Automatic annotation (TrEMBL):
SUPFAM superfamilies: OmpA-like
Domain OmpA-like: 110-230
Major localization listed first in the record, in broad terms: membrane
Species name: Legionella qingyii
Topology in membrane: Single-pass membrane protein
Compartments in which it is found: Cell membrane
Name this protein carries in UniProt: Flagellar motor protein MotD
Pfam family, one: MotB_plug
Annotated family: Belongs to the MotB family.
Membrane-spanning segments: 21-38
One GO CC term, this protein: plasma membrane
Lineage per the UniProt record: Bacteria, Pseudomonadati, Pseudomonadota, Gammaproteobacteria, Legionellales
């Protein structure tokens, strides 16, 4: 009996794989049905969806373009200047206003700004050593102009009273040395040497009559010219009908 029962169980075991196989076939069929359904794209619906997305993105791009155009139109207008040499000089002139006093005078010109400094505010009579109080003024001046690319010309002038010392054989040497000292100070406060021109004119180009002490005091001066470029004739000579100046250029080994 035991052998017959065991034999029947073995026969039944041989047919169990059919159930698993049937399940596998069913799942495989379902898989292919799903795959077929996914691969069957509705062309008309696809085109409609594609056109709708294109339209949406095009409207967004158009809105961006309109916004950008409106921003440009509504933006600040470029400041107009009267001439090619006015760019930045009005702002500079205003910036230098707080330096102006009885010894420092600002003169705005076409293409440059002049700062006339009475020599008495910078030097003792017949000397080229800068007074301590002058350092502060020159430091403030350098701070205002060092970030620009302007040319800074420093001109020295004297009265017509002759000077003859071992250090200064004439007023030319005195005026040139004073201008060079001011130029060096400006350079030490951050203005590049290639931007600085130093000129000594001596007693030439007076701005007042040398007959009176008041006139001679006005002629003893240092003028600092802040110009947009080197092509301005004023940088070469205040008056072309006058004799040439004794010229020194900082940053250049040649001294005339």
């Amino acid at each position: 009996m035991k052998q017959r029962k065991k034999r029947n169980e073995q026969q039944n075991d041989h047919h169990r794989w059919v159930v698993s196989y049937a399940d596998f076939i069913t799942l495989l069929f379902a898989f292919f049905v799903v795959m077929y359904a996914i691969s069957s794209v509705n062309i008309s619906k696809y085109k409609s969806l594609s056109e709708g997305m294109k339209s949406a993105f095009n409207k967004k791009d158009e809105a961006r373009a309109l916004t950008s155009t409106k921003s440009i139109k509504d933006g600040p207008q470029t400041k107009q200047f009267k001439g090619p040499f006015n760019d930045g000089l009005d702002e500079l002139n205003q910036s230098l206003a707080d330096l102006e006093d009885g010894n420092y005078k600002i003169n705005r010109q076409e293409g440059w700004v002049e700062l006339d400094i009475n020599s008495g505010a910078l030097f003792d009579s017949g000397e080229s050593d800068l007074k301590p109080e002058a350092f502060v003024k020159l430091m403030r001046l350098a701070t205002k102009i060092k970030k620009s690319s302007s040319i800074v010309a420093v001109e020295g002038y004297t009265d017509n009273i002759p000077i003859e010392t071992p250090q200064f054989p004439s007023n030319w040497e005195l005026s040139a040395m004073r201008a060079a000292v001011v130029g060096r100070i400006l350079n030490s406060f951050g203005i590049e040497t290639q931007r600085i021109l130093v000129t000594g004119y001596g007693e030439q180009y007076p701005v007042a009559d040398n007959v009176t002490e008041q006139g001679r005091a006005a002629n003893r001066r240092v003028t600092i010219i802040i110009a947009l470029n080197r092509n301005i004739p004023r940088l070469l000579n205040p008056s072309l009908s006058q004799p040439a100046a004794h010229r020194v250029v900082i940053g250049d080994k040649d001294i005339k």
